[in-house]
Structure formats: structure tokens, C-alpha cells
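note to self: dont lose this again. the chain is below, predicted strucutre after it. 394 aa total, dont forget to put it in the shared folder this time
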Amino acid sequence: MTRSEFVKVCGLLGVSLPFQSFFTSCSNDDNGNPIDSSESVIIIGAGPAGMAAGHLLAQRGVNFRILEASSTYGGRIRHTTTFADFPISLGGEWIHVANSILPEIVNNPSTQITTQTQGYSNQDPVGYFDGNTLTMSTIGATGGETDLKFVGSSWLDFFETYILPNVQSRITYNTPISAIDYTGDRVTVTDTNGQTYTADRVIVAVPVKILQSGMVTFTPSLPSEKQNAINSVSVWGGFKAFFKFSEEFYPTYLAFEDSQTEAGQKLYYDAAYAQNTNSNILGLFTVGQQAEPYQNLSGNAQRDYILNELDTVFGSNIATSNYIDHVVQNWNEETFAKGAYIVDHEDWRKVRTLGESVANKVYFAGDAYTDGEDWSSVHTAARSAKRAVQEMVG
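---
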């Protein structure tokens, strides 16, 4: 069963994936004995999974340090606050499960979550362009839409508000990791400058493309099944663009014949939906093969390609004549990401293998390192962090 099939079946059956609180859980060492809070954990990566893992360890009183390769936290939930009067999500944008995921990530019932979200209406307009003709319909007529939008905020805002305060003082930036040695009783982590760090355990929370590229070596080598899974999973490249227009001439969603295939995905959408704004901003989300035409261009050529595509769909030179500004994010060009996420149709058994720990010392967390039931989203990254920490502390 693929990720898409699994999520679809769960939705039809009304089944939600559990994210249990574990305030009362005990900490265990390699032999199943309680871990003393003086023992330490190194987390590699300050994206959603790395921050979530640190947050959960902090709640348990376990000492940890997050080593982040870039100069800031957030990973692939980066946003910009300078393009519009609301945050524009350059990476992970929607909530793909119930809104209850937010307090579950915070994992503290005494914390009041004030983050606002909004779902789509069945009456929202949807356009479908077959290459020649634009056909208009509604979301309800096309099967409905369950994703939620953040209102006046983003995934990054949520983590900054509720998770970052628990981990920020323990993040070391500009520290790319090149080697992990788990031979001895403790784990030794080495950065690209030769600086070493030691801990009892390590949580690897970097994009799987980083491991595929060989930027991080393991001693001893990872088990063959694990390494084979890392090498063989397919990862889509990712590209997003946001165009500001003087007029809203587009529907809530605009789909194409190739909007969802095994080769990739592509969708235009109203990025200002549910926001308290007068700005007209159209987003473009595309991954895999469908992203390549945009990624192969840059500057004015890239801008004009998108405007010409929209002019072809809507006619009358309407996109070009209403264009004000734009911003783009090519995730393939990010040194510490190198792409978007594992393809939706990947073999769930490979994903499950990616999420498995090694030698009770090396744990994995992130949207790629799950139990194989779901992957490639912000909520699955948070759930994988919970899974890794719970396995570590019992």
C-alpha cells in the first residue's frame, strides 16, 4: 500500500493516526533500564522533527544538544514575512490531518493553543485546464478537500511559539555533520570543521537526500537493509512560487492533466485564502517531473514562463497585465535539503526501514523516517520525533 492509498483509506474509514502523550513514561537504557537524566542526546537538524524531538526530551528532563547545519532553524518549513502582510510558506504549508495535531505536538494539556486554522468550503471554485479548455467546478463537486490553512501564521510560526522556546538555547548553528561513530559505548559526532561531540545517543533528523548524497558517514556502516532503503527511496525535487496580482482572476485551486501522477504533482492555489488581507497572491506548488520546467529556468525567464502559462489558461493576457511581484523557492538548490520529500507512491516498507533505529544508539526522525503508515509532511515529521524519543525513553 502506498502513502496516498493508506491516507485515503484512513480518511474513508474515519481513522486517525494516534499521537499519544507520554508524560508518565520512563526512560530506558540499552538494556531496558531507566536512563538517568544526566545522559545526553545529540540531535542533528533543527527542522520540525529535530525541534520536536528536543522539545519532548526537554519535557522529560533529558540533556540534549541540537546541531544545525544552516544559520537558522526550521528546515523545510521556512517562510517569508516580507512578501505579503501574512506569512508566505516556502515549504510545508498545510495541515493534512485534524487540527488536533497541534496540541498533540505541544504535548502539554496545560498549554492553550491559540493558532487559528481554516478548512476549505465545498463551494470554493476549482478550475481544471486540459491543455485547451478551462472548466470550472467546485471543491465539493470534485470530491472535497480536507487540508487546513493556517490563518495569519504558518507551521514555522507554530513551532516558534510553542516548541522553539524549549529548545532554542540548545541549538548550535552553522554546524554541518560529516560523520557519526557509534562503535563504542557513546556516540561521537564530527562536524565538517573536525569538531567532535559525544553523547549517549544521537537522533538523525536531516532530509533523506542528505544521507543519499553521502554527506554523512556512519561507523560502523549502517545495516545493509537500512542503507539499501536510504539509497533506493525516490525523492521528488520541489519548487514553489508566489505571484502577487492587482486582480484576483483565478479560482481557489487550478489543476491540470498532470496535477497528480506518479512522476510528480503540480497545482496553482489561492495563497491568500482565509487570510485577513487585500493582497491577491497565487501560489504554485510543484514536485517531481512537473517541477523541472520551472527549476530549469531562472530570473525573468522563469517569471515569464509562469505568467505565460497563466495567460494561456485564463486568456486575455490577464496574468501578465495584472502582475506586481513574485518570489520563488527551489528546494533542489538548498545545500542542506537538496529536494522536497519522498514520493507519495513509495513502498511503505522502505519508509518503515528508514525510521528504524540502529544499535539502540542511532535514531532517525523526520518526514522520511516514519513507521511506513504515512510520510512526507510536517505532522509526520513531528510524529516520527515522538516515536524516536518514545523508543529511546520508553
